[in-house]
Amino acid sequence: MTTVEERLLPSAEPVRLIDQDGVFHDHPSYLKPASDLLVDGYAQLVKGRRINDQASALVRQGRLAVYPSSHGQEACQIAATMVLRDGDWLFPTYRDIVSIVSRGVDPIEALTLLRGDWHCGYDPYERNVAPQTTPLATQLIHAVGVAHAARLKGEDTVVVAMCGDGATSEGDFHEALNFAAVFKAPVVFFIQNNEYAISVPLAKQSVAPSLAHKGIGYGVPGEQADGNDLAGLLAVLGQAVEKARAGEGPQLVEAHTYRVQAHTNADDAGRYRHEDEVTPWLDRDPIKRLEAYLTQEGLLDDAVKQRAEEDAAQVATALRDGLMPEPVVDPADLFEHLYTEPTPQLKEQAAFLRDELAREEA
Amino acid sequence: MTHVKITMAQALNQALRDAMKADDTVLVFGEDVGALGGVFRITDGLTAEFGEDRCFDTPLAESGIVGMAVGLAMNGMRPVVEMQFDAFGYPAFEQIVSHVAKMRNRTRGKITLPMVIRMPYAGGIGGVEHHCDSSESYYAHTPGLTVVAPATVADAYTLLRKAIEFPDPVVFMEPKKLYWAKEEVDLTESQPGIGTAVVRRDGADATLIAYGPTVPVALEAAEVAAAEGRQLTVVDLRSIVPFDDVTVCAAVRRTGRAVVVAEASGFASVSSEIVARVTERCFHSLAAPIRRVTGFDIPYPPPKLEKHQLPGVDRILDAVDDLQWEDS
Ligand SMILES: Cc1ncc(C[n+]2csc(CCOP(=O)(O)OP(=O)(O)O)c2C)c(N)n1
Ligand SMILES: [Mg+2]
User: Fold this and answer.
1) Which position among B3, B99, B130, B131 bears the catalytic label?
2) Which CATH number does the domain housing residue B102 bear?
3) Of the partner residues A123, A172, A182, the one whose CB lies closest to the CB of residue B63
4) Residue B258: in which H helix or E strand, if any?
5) CA distance A226 to chain B (A)
6) Rounded to whole angstroms, how far apart are CA atoms A340 and B105?
7) Pairing mode of beta strands B4-7, B182-185
8) Is residue B232 located within the same domain as residue B311?
9) What are B258-310's pLDDT values in tens digits?
10) How far apart are the C-alpha atoms of B294 and B311, rounded to whole Å?
């Protein structure tokens, strides 16, 4: 018999299986993920880091309007998709490009929003990745709807719904948790607590003991993990997904990580935090620590490392090549997609723009 | 071909029932819509007939209700949600504006949201604060939404059926003061679809343009005007978005004069849009500026004062009198 507290309360300390020196520690409730999973995860981390850094470079070159990087948060990005099956759903935010790509979406299509040639550039049904959502926490409740529909259809789909620490203050975060709990919807809410919402630190966002504690009021089990430890994340998220799939209802997971870069390239983090605060986090880097662990265990030979590097180089090239040419945009798109059948008024306005463009060309 | 005498509330209930029978993916949910059947009984008996999976109560959170509908619609369902009252739809405003309205566009049509947001709206029932808002302009102003307001019992049935079958999201505004209006109707009779206005009464002298709760008032005014020797056309918009410019403009051109009648405050409203677009299109046919009879630009008044806010027959007739007849 477990008590309510045992069922709902997160671990007292964030679950960590591999520490920042790459040393593995046993955990009473979580098993070490299989070695091949960690090796595959390592390759994905390296690739994810490259996506982040290449995208940031492409902003500087004017090829992307803006890029909210998940540099330093790649373990969260990768873990969120590694625990999913094909038919499952992912609900990402603006910061979760690496997750989206790791789910199998074409990187150029994934960057459409930030390149500015359309809003959502990929087909959400192709890989079951919802459009990236910017209005904070609003996507979490969609995730509940998708999960509930799946249950009504008798499918064993699980939905991973992502958000940041700041977003947990939004009303929709709470409504989503409550709805998911009441309808027993198979949703894993995954908070990447990177300690900042633009300039506002976590301390001003919430005085809850942890963000994972926020599940308790809704009867949703919470758990917290070291967000820079891929092994711990895979164990915690994997278990949460399993429980959700088994019909135990929604789960809440908080990953403790850190936004080592500014909110986006347009932000000046120097205005609200000291570099001293950032430095220790560089030592907690998710790639370094997994690399140290895998190397010590003899799981990371040169061939694996080389393959990871090559994969990363390949995606970087794909980004550069794909984003260098000016995107082809079609003004007709402005009117075509709003309704299945455009209203008479939109048809008039589309014709107006067509004429205007024709006159400009003449 | 059977004519029955039913209320608008019963017609809406029948529409939901028939839609749920016709299509398993139609789900009805909201606050108190289950065992109670909704505070206006529009969902009466649906849980009993179709089960808890098809018609259910949700936790009390409108953003959650609409947001969940978005997710359900993304995954193969046709949700029909109820906002308990007009003014209690506001917590869902972000979901409606940022997601319901934009999803199709932002995904280039990959995701369509066949969903209906039903909302009892407008006043005239002696409702206390926050129970009588005419909020249609907010939705009509939002590209991507389709906004419908029935004024007759037959239309309540037809338009709700069509809204549920519609491929895109529809905000369905139910004039709550007409819920108990009874009409002899044949529900199987085919009615025009969404996007089509209907001329409810023909008259050569001036046109009254109305929708939802003001249609019966406009018809009553036309009746009185006829007795006084002036023949008025009454156009019932039925659908605010898409707007039926063709029917409205044809009526105005034929009559040369027009009055728009709406309960909502006039400033920056559906009524101001109608005046603007009809003037743009029919200027040379107009013998007088188009007049409006609308609510004042004030929050909806308490019950003891609401009669001053509501467009009534006299105000409509006064506006018609003001249409510069001396020049003709
Ligand atoms: C409803 C809403 N309010 C404000 C914003 C502007 N905004 C964008 S990101 C952001 C900070 C969000 O912080 P957090 O949830 O911690 O996510 P992070 O950016 O750190 O990944 C804000 C305030 C928004 N996108 N949506
Ligand atoms: Mg944050």
Assistant:
1) B131
2) 3.40.50.970
3) A172
4) strand B258-265
5) 30
6) 10
7) antiparallel
8) yes
9) 999 999 999 999 999 999 999 999 999 999 999 999 999 999 999 999 999 99
10) 6
Which residue, B160, B185, B210, sits at the end of a domain? B185
- The one-letter amino acid code at A210 reads S
CB-based contact B74 A152, cutoff 8 Å: no
Assess contact for A323 and A331: CB atoms under 8 A.
Answer: no
CA–CA dist B142, B76 (Å, integer): 24
Residue B148 and residue B51 in one domain: yes
Q: Which residue of B has its CA nearest to A109?
A: B107
Cβ-defined contact of B106 to A145 (cutoff 8 Å) = no
* Strand B116-121 versus strand B232-236 pairing type: unpaired
The residue whose CA is least distant from atom 20 of ligand 1 is A197
- Per residue in A229-254, pLDDT (tens digit) is 999 999 999 999 999 999 999 999 99
Ligand 1 test: best mutation among A191, A198, A199, A254, most atoms within 8 Å of CB? A198
Rounded to whole angstroms, the Cα distance separating A128 from A130 reads: 6
Residue B202 lies in a domain: yes
Note if the bond before A186 is cis, omega within 30 degrees. no
Is the domain of B181 the same as that of B209? no
Q: Do B108 and A179 touch (CB under 8 A)?
A: no
User: Cα separation of A292 and A307, whole Å?
Assistant: 17
Burial of A230-251, coded b for 16+ CB within 10 Å and e otherwise, reads: bbbbbbbbbbbbebbeeeebbb
Quote the pLDDT of residue B313. 98
State the number of CA atoms in the 13 A half-sphere of B175 facing the CB. Answer: 27
Residue closest by Cα to atom 19 of ligand 1: A197
Q: Domain check: are B73 and B155 in the same one?
A: yes
Residues A53-72, mean pLDDT to the nearest whole number: 97
| Site residues for ligand 1, CB cut-off 6 Å | A 95, 134-136, 163-167, 194, 196-198, 259, 263
Contact B72 A146 (CB under 8 A): yes
Residues of chain A neighbouring B27 (CB-CB closer than 8 A): 152
Please tell me the pTM assigned to this model. Answer: 0.97
Query: Cα–Cα distance between B62 and B119 in angstroms, integer?
Result: 12
ipTM of the complex: 0.97
Structurally, chain B folds into a number of domains equal to 2
Q: How far apart are CA B151 and CA B148, in angstroms?
A: 10
Range of the domain at B235: 198-327
Q: Is the dihedral of CA A224, A227, A228, A231 positive or negative?
A: positive
CB atoms within 10 A of CB B228: 9
Test the A interface: residue of B25, B74, B170, B194 with most A CBs within 10 Å: B74
* Euclidean distance between CA atoms A207 and A184, whole angstroms: 27
Is 70 exceeded by the pLDDT of residue B327? Answer: no
Together in a domain, B298 and B216: yes
Tell me the sheet residues that pair with B209.
B235, B260
Q: How confident is the model at residue A362 (pLDDT cuts 50, 70, 90)?
A: confident
Residue with tokens 């029935």: B150
Look up tokens 């400009």; give the residue. Answer: A360
Q: Strands (DSSP E) along A68-226, which ranges?
A: 89-91, 159-164, 187-193, 196-197, 200-201, 222-226
Active site residue B131: yes
Q: For residues A107 and A289, is the Cβ–Cβ distance under 8 A?
A: no
